[in-house]
Amino acid sequence: MSSVNNQSRLPGQFPSPVQQTSKRLVVSELCLLWVLSGCIGLSVILALHFPRSKMPELLAFLPAAGSPRRYARSRGSRAGESGLGHDVGASYSRYSSDNQDSKSIVDQQRECHDRAAKEPLEIARELEFFDEAVSGTKPSRIGFDRMMEAAKQRAFSVLFIYDIGRLARESVISMPTLKTLVYVHKVRVISVTEGLDTAQEGWEVLATILCLHHERYLFYLAKNVFRGQEGTVLDGLSVGDHCFGYDSVPIEGPPKRRRGRNGRSEKKYVIIETEADWVRRIFYWFVRDHQPIQWIVRELNRLGAPKDHRHGKNTKWGRAGVIALLRREKYVGIWPWGVTKNCRNPITGQIAKELRPREECGKWLRHLPELRIVDDETFAAAQRILDQNAERIAACREESTGRLRGSSKDSATPRHLLQGRIRCAVCASAFHVGGLHAKYLICPAFRRGLCSCRTMLPRDLAERLILEEVGRRILSDKPWRRAVHEQALQAWNDFASTIPSELSSAENRLAEVEQRIARLVDKVEDGLEDPDIKARLAQRRNERQQLERNIGRLQNAASNRPRKPTPEWVDEQLKNLHEVLASDGPAAAVALGNLIGKVVVSEAMRPGRMRPFLRGEFALHPRSVVDAVNGNESQTTETASGQGDSGDRIVIDFAEPDPKYEMSDEVKQLSDTGLANWEIAEQLQVSPSRVTFLYNFWHERSGMPVPERKNRPKRKRRETPLYKRIADEAKQRWDKGDSESEIGRDFETTQATVRKSIEWWHTSRDLPVPKFADRRAGQVELAASLYQAGFTVAEIAKNKLKVTITTVRKMLDEWFASKGEIRPDGRSLRRRSA
Questions:
Q1: Dihedral angle, C-alpha 699, 702, 703, 704, nearest 10 °
Q2: How many Å apart are CA 153 and CA 185, to the nearest integer?
Q3: Among 316, 372, 595, 611, which is most exposed with the fewest C-beta within 10 angstroms?
Q4: How far apart are CA 463 and CA 453, in angstroms?
């Protein structure tokens, strides 16, 4: 460095001040680098070559000029303030994992008690803090947090620990913890086995070295564990990374990997056939049947399928679990290892997964064909379908935010009117958007097989019925409007009476805080440099700012006091509220949510119907209407299942009105006039059988017996019956191979009429009548052969046999039954693809 400087300046010149300063900085940096290198090297040497029991002797060269007595005298004022009058001892113990002996806590506490007896001090039982099976890399632990809170409250003055590693395994956690205990909470910390005592001068140097030593110990421990696992992987043995469908069992023979009292045998992977059958079934559903992921999840939960050994007993199958299973290469005999590595944040203790380079983890890839569960073609087809699904999802994402279009988690800006408002009465889950073109609301728990509510709620119908009922109450119901006016008057009176008292209380509190701030400032000016005083001063200043903002808000509210509500004002505000609700936007959703809260829905049945509908219940309170008018969030706490003091319980059937009720009344009126069924059918443009059904339904719902109608005029038959008029064309189409159902649909008649027409065509010409059973047997064989060739049920029905899908299913069921084979699941016939 000096030679360079001598060459850079001219002869006869002296170094400039800038050059001298630069040289001093370089020398200081080199000295600092030398000290740090020495500390790190010493910690590594100590960690590798010396036992922990020799640490006090090895570190005896460090300066220790201080004295515990001097420390006790400096703490005398604090002890007097806390009311202790003498030193109080506490201890903290910890062990890391469940594999360690739980007696470790007792052993550490015994060492701390023996060390405390030399002071002499006693450690009370309530001051023995500990954490069991908790890693020292976590900054927040139950026992540790309780110990720090007790130190903050000055519950003890001396803390005994077995070693620094009990506090933390990271120097960025342990050193700030030590300095907080010593300098902020005035606690003396003693490490029993390492000779650390914060009452001695220069303890920070020893503590820094010890913290680095414990941190490097964790690093080398992870390296050694990884080295052992890598050797096991290279030997083709199990390292515990088996998944659903597999298990690891010990290899017969003496233990090789671990000897002694806890010796363990080497393990190998084996297939669990019961779980492997579920794996094959999931791939079969997804690839061959083209079932959606949600259907597979619901079916697995319904059938009680087992889960992976890493999951808890009460966990259920979910979408992510099924996708992960379908993506797993181990089912085709490819077992990767070490693809990711754990990277821990030393400050927060959180662990994140990071990918290793492909060339690094390639040497650990194992090929185990004996563990194959799924064939390559099925696995490849599953990957193609998953990739297509991922591409469709990616195409639906916003380019800027990456969120699916239409999705929103912000309750302040809901996407639709009923977002988060509909609740399931069975499982209390909030209904989500789903169904065809997102026109319905469905229970998400049912999609996973965890709820029995399978009925979907039409969004448009639910919004229309709820708004109609709420609008009728707030616009047309006069008693309800009077109740709203009374609540508005009460709210206005409460506002007028509480604002002055709250303002006066806030001003008095502000004056009190100002006095406390002045006293704290006087102590600081007198030279009392206490961190607690500074912290308290900052706290009081924050409190003063909050009080000032609150006073400003109250003064603004008092100056802008609203006028006294009148019935006309209430009517105008309710009309404006109805206009807001009728609009389509986030404001309408927020206003409706403030009015009705949650709508609890449950399944209900209608007479004469097999499909249930949803019935909703909610409570509408005058107070909530007043809050909505004033722009406040509703504070009503009554639920929809009950009725409050001034709230009404509203029940809405989310179903379109059944037209048969109105039509049955009309049929009864026309029948009373003496008209026949066929005359009523022509007038109402329905079939005669429908007229009979509606006539019987009217008497059933009225609780009356159905009278006989023998004397009714009958409809005159036409000269030529239908089966004779269509005989020629039906025979031609039947010869071409068209089915009876397709011919019947074209002529708007039944299959029985078509068969009768074909029979009459043959008998009228003295020809033998063909056997329809033989024709059906041929169709059954044709349908079975096409199904085995890979055609779907829909393709066979539409393009090949010209029959309905239901007819094809019946044919396939009949064919499988005749062969004595187990037919596929009935649902698989619906979605089977080529």
A1: -40
A2: 8
A3: 611
A4: 20
Sole residue written with tokens 């233990």:
255
Which string of DSSP letters, residue by residue, matches 576-601?
A: HHHHHHHS-SHHHHHHHHHHH--EEE
Q: Under 8 Å CB-to-CB from 34, ≥6 apart: which residues? A: none
Q: Which of 663, 670, 671 is nearest to 694 (CA)?
A: 663
Global model pTM greater than 0.70: no
Which 3-state string (H, E, C) describes 374-428? CCHHHHHHHHHHHHHHHHHHHHCECCCCCCECCCCCCCCCCCCCCCCCEEECCCC
By the 10 Å C-beta count (0-12 exposed, 13-18 middle, 19+ buried), 568 is classed as exposed
- Residue burial 322-334, b: 16+ Cβ < 10 Å; e: rest: bbebbebebbbbb
Helix (H, G, I), strand (E, B) or coil at 337: coil
Q: Who's near 483: CB < 8 A, 6+ residues apart?
A: 622, 646
- Per the document, the length of the chain is 834
> Which secondary structure element, helix H or strand E, spans residue 621, and what is its range?
none
CA 494, chain centre distance (Å): 42
Helix, strand, or coil (residue 440): strand
Instruction: Give the phi and the psi of residue 832 in degrees, each rounded to 5.
Output: -70, 135
Single-letter code of the amino acid located at 696: N
Question: Over the chain (834 residues), what is each successive 10-residue block's mean pLDDT?
Answer: 39 42 47 55 51 47 39 40 62 80 84 91 91 88 92 93 91 91 93 92 90 85 83 82 88 61 74 92 89 87 86 81 92 88 81 82 86 92 90 66 52 68 88 82 83 87 83 72 70 69 82 83 73 77 83 71 66 67 65 77 81 87 65 45 54 83 86 84 86 86 77 61 85 79 83 87 85 74 82 80 78 80 58 46
